[in-house]
Amino acid sequence: MYRLAIIGYGGMGAWHHSNIRSHVKEIEVTGAYDIRPETEQTVRAAHIRFYESLEQLLSDPQVDIVTIAVPNNFHKELSVAALRAGKHVICEKPVTMNAQELEEIMAAAQETGKLFSVHQNRRWDKDYRIVKKIVSDGVIGTPYSIETRVQGSRRSLHGWRGYRINGGGMVYDWGVHLIDQLLDLIDSPVVSVDAHLFSVFSEEVDDNFKAFLRFENGISALVEIATNCFISQPRWHVSCTDGTAVIDNWDCEGKMVRLTSDEIMTWDNDIVYTSAGPTRTMAPRPKHTVTELALPEVKADWSEYYKNIAAVLDGREKLIVRPEQCLRVMKVIDTIFESQKTGRGIACRI
C-alpha cells in the first residue's frame, strides 16, 4: 500500500482523493495541504490529515507519493521540491508553463531516482480509446486527416484559468489533453504547427483556439477548443483511406462508414444533377459500395492511471505516461504560442 498526499485540495485535488479512494486499492490518500485556510475544514471532513505547511507534508516519512493539483505556474517549483524531499510525484496537467520548466523537473527526477509522471488521464477517455482502436485495427484503412474538438458555449473561464500569470487559457486547459492524445495516437514527429488563438471575451488569455499539426508520416490533424460555439461539430472526425469515422459527443454516439468493394468509381458521360447542381465528382456513391459499422467497444477507466503508478513502483509494469512524452506535448504548446505570436506556421521537428 502506497500512501499519497495531495498539494492543492480544490476541485481537482478532491477529485483525485475520491477517485483513488473508490477505485485504487493499491494507494491510500492520507493527507492534504492547501494555502487557503478555508480548505482545512474540507480536508478534515474527508477524514485525512490536514498539513499546516508544505514543509510539514514534505518531511512526513509516511508519505510515499505527492499529487500536485494547484495552478499551473506553481507546478515546477512544487514538483522539484517534492522530488528532492524523496517523494514520487504526480503532477496535474499542463505539467509546466513551458518545455524548459519540465526539463528542470526531469533533471530533478533523474537526480533523485524518484518516479515523476503527469496526470494525462484523458488517454483513458472512452472516445479517445475508440479512435485509438479504429486506427490500430485498420478497419477503415490508414488515417490521413484527424479532427478533434471540444466545444461549448458558456463563455467563461473558471477562477485562475482566466489569468495569464497562472497559465490560464484553453491551450493549457483543454488543448494539452487533445494534443497529448494525438501524440499518443500518431507514431510520427510533428513537423509543422499553425495556430490561431482568439480572445473573444477574455482580456488576458485565449478562450478559443485552433491548431493545425502536420506529422512527418503525412497525417494532418486539427485541434479545436471553443467556449463560444453554439452549434457544436463532432468530437472526432477521422478520415482514412478506406472510410470515415465520426464520434459525435461525449456519449460516444457515432459510426463508421467503410468501403465494401474495390470497385473503381467511374461515371457515365452524362452529368449527374444533385441538390448542389450538376456534378460528377460529388455525385452520390452507389450504396452497395459502402457499409455502415458501429463504433468498436472499448474499456475506458481513468483509475487505470493510478493503478499503473502503483504497478510501476511495484516493478510489475512500465510507466504509461512518461515525462519524455509530456515534454513533446509542451514543445508543441510552446510552438503554438510562437505561431500565434508570429502570425505564421512554424516548421519544427517534435
Description of the molecule:
The strands form three sheets. The chain has a nine-stranded mixed sheet. 31% of the residues lie in helices and 25% in strands. The model has no long low-confidence stretch (mean pLDDT 95). It has 350 residues and is of the alpha/beta class. It has nine helices and 17 strands.
Summarize the topology.
Layout: E1 2-7, H1 11-23, E2 27-33, H2 39-45, E3 49-50, H3 54-58, E4 65-68, H4 75-84, E5 88-91, H5 99-112, E6 116-118, H6 126-137, E7 143-151, H7 170-185, E8 190-198, E9 208-215, E10 220-226, E11 236-240, E12 243-247, E13 254-259, E14 272-274, E15 277-279, E16 290-293, H8 304-314, H9 323-342, E17 346-347
Parallel strand pairs: 1-2, 1-4, 2-3, 4-5, 5-6, 7-10
Antiparallel strand pairs: 7-11, 8-9, 8-17, 9-10, 11-12, 12-13, 13-16, 14-15
Helix pairs in contact: 4-5, 5-9, 7-9
Features:
alpha/beta, 350 residues, 31% helix, six-stranded parallel β-sheet, elongated
In short:
This protein is an alpha/beta fold and 350 residues long. The chain is 31% helix and 25% strand. The strands form 3 sheets. Strands 16-13-12-11-7-10-9-8-17 form a 9-stranded mixed sheet.
Write the H/E string, N to C: EHEHEHEHEHEHEHEEEEEEEEEHHE
Which shape, going by the Cα principal axes? elongated
Q: Tell me how many strands there are.
A: 17
Structural class: alpha/beta
Helix run count: 9
How large, in whole angstroms, is the Cα Rg?
Answer: 23 Å
Percent strand equals 15-25%
Largest sheet: 9 strands, mixed
Q: Specify the helix fraction band.
A: 25-40%
User: N-to-C terminal Cα separation, in Å?
Assistant: 38 Å
